UniProtKB/TrEMBL annotation:
Chain intervals for the UniProt region annotation (Disordered): 349-407
InterPro entries with a match to the protein in the record: DUF1996
Name the UniProt record assigns to this protein: DUF1996 domain-containing protein
Compositionally biased tracts (Basic residues): 390-400
Pfam families: DUF1996 (PF09362)
Highest taxon of the lineage: Eukaryota
Gene source species: Cylindrobasidium torrendii FP15055 ss-10
The keyword Signal is annotated on this UniProt entry: yes
Residue span(s) of domain DUF1996: 34-266
Low complexity composition bias: residue spans: 349-378
Signal peptide: 1-16
Keywords associated with the record: Signal
Amino acid sequence: MKSALFLAALSASVNAYWLMAVDDLFDGVPQRVDPLVYPGQRAGHVHKILGGKNFDFEVPTSDVLRQSECTTTPIAEDHSNYWVPSLYFQWANGSYSSVGGGAVIYYLFPDTAGSTTPFPDDFRMLSGDPSLRSFNESSFAQQAVTYLCLNWDAGGETTRHNEIPVKDCPAGIRSQINFPSCWDGKNTDSADHKSHVAFRSGGPDSGDCTDPNFPVSIPRIFIEIYWSAQDFTTFKSQAKNPSQPFVLSNGDELGYSYHGDFLNGWETATLQKAVDQCNCNMYGDPTCCGDAGVFTYDPDHKNGKCTKDLLITDEPSTGLIAALPGVDASNLSTSASEDASSSTSASAAAASSAAPSSLNNASASSGDSGSREASSSRCSTIKREERDVKRHARTHHRRRDFTFGSL
Ligand SMILES: *[C@@H]1O[C@H](CO)[C@@H](O)[C@H](O)[C@H]1NC(C)=O
Ligand SMILES: *[C@@H]1O[C@H](CO)[C@@H](O)[C@H](O)[C@H]1NC(C)=O
Ligand SMILES: *[C@@H]1O[C@H](CO)[C@@H](O)[C@H](O)[C@H]1NC(C)=O
Ligand SMILES: *[C@@H]1O[C@H](CO)[C@@H](O)[C@H](O)[C@H]1NC(C)=O
């Protein structure tokens, strides 16, 4: 655990970026689907799934994704899919309540036009490892996963952790993952969905593509999820583990197994233009790139919110649930030899009036009540993120070469 968190190293190679608030494709209902790792079948655990509507049990090609009727990203030419595990609060009796979360996705890339190659057709990748239950600090892949314990109170301090924070987080928990951004230039996928890509020379968020086996610089994707963990603070005494009551959807109570998946569904020419030209706002606000015609920025989803019917309907995954879908209760993470015996006998998914109504709210609630921007119609998640970023930038007098991805 580190608390000196905004000492992000400056990086010569990453300057420009944009960030975008992205909605859940299944309207906040995580689905036990992972076409990359479990093609054609139910996945081992549920995920929060974002992006193009043609997501499915089988991996869609880039062409199929591009034909999606809509996307939950605010950039109309991005029909990619992104997914991460979801988060649950674990009650003492073995039941779980889903934690709502809002997503922000960053695209980071060097300022120099021509230096970043867009993802090729059918490009896919996985960052992180769902089987990890320990931390290896010299592994770039593990450095790519971090958590912030958000605290925006006056005098409060936001802290960064390699595991799910073991403390109260007044403004919630932000899980973060960096994807590799150096590509072998040949393979669009690999057996482990990782071997065709590598992290940059300085780690997940700094350096260059200096390894001759991975010479091609692709956009760096960084995904943040703002989990409304603070909604549960008053219920901690009723948790199975009151000091750290949360668990990832795969049963990991430590958080080292957090991971992210990406399927390319971009219009290639648009992504090329974006990494060459989208460089006009030091806080990553994509509005100016939209105005300049680099891409179609549509944060309000003018043609209607993009959602998709559930792929799995017989397996509750939100609200109060008796077990984590797909996860053997006897195999919950860690060292803990805590009692998980009651979870298998509980009846599934009784909607309980005991659970607070806010617990199943998929929209991230704002942790900053004094917002000057409260009347704006723009998405609350991105507003909060921009505020957060601006505050950091002000505090640390940084310019655009601040490596936000390392927060
Ligand atoms: C138990 O968890 C480990 C680590 O994630 C996994 O490899 C194994 O398949 C799981 N076993 C069962 C029965 O779920
Ligand atoms: C930790 O990560 C480093 C770098 O990837 C690797 O060389 C080393 O073998 C890992 N250690 C363990 C115990 O897995
Ligand atoms: C477990 O505890 C929670 C919180 O008190 C309650 O809402 C839920 O109904 C309980 N579940 C079972 C199966 O008793
Ligand atoms: C969910 O949260 C949003 C934003 O905080 C709020 O406007 C909405 O009323 C909430 N919905 C429920 C069902 O609690």
